[in-house]
Write a structure and sequence with these properties.
315 residues; alpha/beta; Rossmann fold; 5-stranded parallel beta sheet; 10 helices; globular
């Protein structure tokens, strides 16, 4: 991929953000990637005594990981929810979200960034598509790592991740092909190699549940607070069948997180109380108002979640 691309190839993750990239994106969005490959969240906030307002917690930053909903597609840097959470809490928030990531890539990136930045809190945010992406070894022509279950253990496969062959095709031609292939049914996308499956449909939930256990191990090893947060695409509010499917999958995964001692946040009720939840979206992603709703929910919830986590640790 070229130096002018938002993404660069990554041997471990498949693709990552291009350090130093800056430029406009879809709609009103503008993307600024810092030298460490994180999306810019604004200048360092003023010192804060802690999330509770009463007692300080570890001085490490809050780390956000996830897909395009965490990264903030279709909005400016300062409008993504990690940047808005930083302003609301007064604590440093690192936006480690990457567009197109599956649940597997999100966990792998969390492990990398926790080791590098030593955060005190990790918010791992997902939509149901991310669970399905864990069934794939290629998405949108980008090769990715994947996990299999061998002898009842998760085993990482596909690393180092091969570079995608489409990088040799001029970008304007790739863009036209992307537009065409995105409009095709999934079965045809697989026929053309746009996506490549390694697991049967539905097995992603089993992989994701085991990856939640891996997040719990990360929490215990580093003495941090991991929060698993569910977000929802705009089709949630217009397709009742899709909503039912999402709720079943998300509740199963959040219940798994709770069983592993991981705190959870479900953004569904916050948006469901709105007369027109669709007003919180740009096109396929949340707009600035939607991201503010997510950040506000987190800002209000974090003190309780942190206290609960500390109490469990002390117990």
């Amino acid at each position: 991929m070229s130096e002018n691309s938002l993404f660069v190839h990554d041997d471990h993750l498949g693709h990552a953000l291009n350090p130093g990239f800056s430029g406009p994106g879809v709609g009103r969005s503008f993307h600024t990637i810092d030298a460490d490959g994180l999306r810019f969240t604004g200048e360092m906030p003023a010192p804060n005594d802690g999330l509770t307002g009463e007692e300080p917690i570890d001085q490490g930053p809050i780390l956000a990981v996830g897909d395009s909903y965490t990264y903030g597609d279709e909005v400016r840097d300062e409008e993504a929810w990690p940047a808005q959470l930083q302003r609301l809490t007064g604590r440093r928030v690192l936006n480690g979200g990457v567009t197109g990531y599956g649940f597997d890539q999100m966990v792998l990136r969390a492990e990398q960034l926790v080791a590098r930045y030593r955060p005190s809190v990790v918010v791992a945010s997902f939509i149901t598509h991310d669970v399905q992406r864990a069934e794939m070894r290629r998405m949108w022509w980008r090769n990715k790592p994947w996990f299999v279950v061998e002898n009842d253990q998760l085993v990482l496969k596909g690393v180092p991740v091969p570079k995608p062959g489409m990088t040799r095709v001029p970008r304007h031609i790739r863009g036209r092909l992307d537009t065409t292939l995105l409009s095709l049914p999934p079965i045809l996308q697989h026929v053309f190699g746009y996506h490549v499956r390694v697991h049967r449909s539905g097995f992603g939930l089993e992989i994701a549940k085991r990856l939640v256990g891996r997040l719990a191990g990360l929490q215990a090893e580093h003495g941090i607070k991991v929060i698993l947060m569910a977000q929802y695409p705009p089709d949630t509010w217009t397709n009742h069948w899709y909503l039912k499917h999402q709720r079943q999958l998300i509740e199963a995964l959040l219940d798994c997180a709770t069983a592993h001692g991981i705190a959870t946040v479900d953004t569904y009720r916050r948006l469901a109380t709105e007369p027109k939840p669709q007003d919180f979206y740009a096109n396929a992603h949340m707009n600035a108002r939607g991201n503010l709703a997510v950040a506000s929910l987190l800002a209000v919830t974090l003190p309780t979640l942190v206290k609960q986590s500390l109490a469990k640790t002390d117990g």
